[in-house]
Every structure is written in C-alpha cells, then in structure tokens.
Predict the 3D structure of the following.
Amino acid sequence: MDLEQWKLILSSAVASFPVLIKAAPITIGFALAAMLLGLPLALLVALTRLYGPRPLRSLAALYVSFIRGTPLLVQIFMIYYGLPSLGVTLNPITGGILALTLNAGAYLSETIRAAIESIHKGQHEAAYSLGLNRRQVMQLIVLPQAARVALPSMGNSLIGLVKDTSLVSVITVVELLRSAQLVIARTFEPFGPYLMAALIYWFISSLLELVQRSMERRLARGVAR
C-alpha cells in the first residue's frame, strides 16, 4: 500500500467523523437503555432462581440458558422478523432495545446471583436473629454488599453492550456501524469509515472503563473506612 492510498484512507476516515459522531449518542443510548431495563429483569431472575418456587426457578433457568446458548444476532432476528408472524410488530428501535435488554438481563442475572451467593450465610442468620424479615435482609444487608461485588462485572457488561449495539444495524437502526455503512455506500471507500467507527467504539469503551474504575475505587475507600 503506497502513500497515496494511506492518504485516501485517512481523508475518508476524517471526512466520515462528523456523520459517525452524530450516531455515537444513539449507540450509547441503546446500551444504557438495555442496561437500565436489564438490571431490574436480572435482579428478578436472580432472586427467582435463588428463592422462588421450583416451577419459577426452572422457568428462570430456562430463560438464562436459552439466551446464553443462542447468538444475540439470532435473538434480534427472532424479535424483529419473527414476532410479526405471531401478530406482534415492533419498530427497529423498540425491537433492538428489547433484544438487548433480554440478552443483558440473562447475563446480568448470573452476575447478581453469584454476588448474592458470595455473601456469607452467617450475615443472613445474624440479621434474622435481630428480627429482620427476608425482604429487609435482602434490602439492607445482602444487596448493598452484593452490588459492590457485582460492580466490576456489570461495568464489563455495559462495555460489552456498547459493542453489541452494532448488531442492531441489521434491522436498519442507524447507530454507529450503520452510519459507517451508509457513508461507505456513498464514497465506496470502506476502510476509512470502518476505522473511524472502530476508534469511536474504542473511545466510548475506554471512557466507560475509566468511570468503572473510579466507582470501584470509591467503593473500596468506603469499605476501608
């Protein structure tokens, strides 16, 4: 590859930046929406698997197994292209967020379940001996400690969601990757826009990683005190 080709690639990357940076908030929005909606779902699934009746535990375990055992892309296709055959039609944004939420909920539930199980049973028994009921024990004793344990994994899940949002481009959501594809369709130069998209993904992920580390340090100081 000669110098002129590199100049062409760099110029196309720079030229694509204004278009791609406008799509970055959409990518971040999808990831945050899936995370915020997925966390309550994950908590419900985790508590169901730990303390729910046997039929519900089995149903929750089946949900987690199915989501973790199938590709996210297939899940997106099932929701966006498959549900209309059952009479349920979703627009691309709703379908994409729903697929990402269901996926995140399954993975986060395992993180939360493991974090809850890591809290020593003696703390449960001590809280019960003080007259607290199960809800109070979970709310006041277990979940605050489990949140500290789960934070690093949840931060990693959010970073993963940012990258997973690229898959909703297949259902015409104009997020970061789809914007790069639209630029390429006009310029017929693929490397530059894809390179710029990769750099923006990298920047977002690195920024989230810094936020995650900052939160971990604050929690560590709080525990030390």
Summary: The two ends are 58 Å apart (CA to CA). The mean pLDDT is 92. The domain at 3-224 is CATH 1.10.3720.10 (MetI-like fold). The CA atoms of residues 93 and 122 lie 46 Å apart.
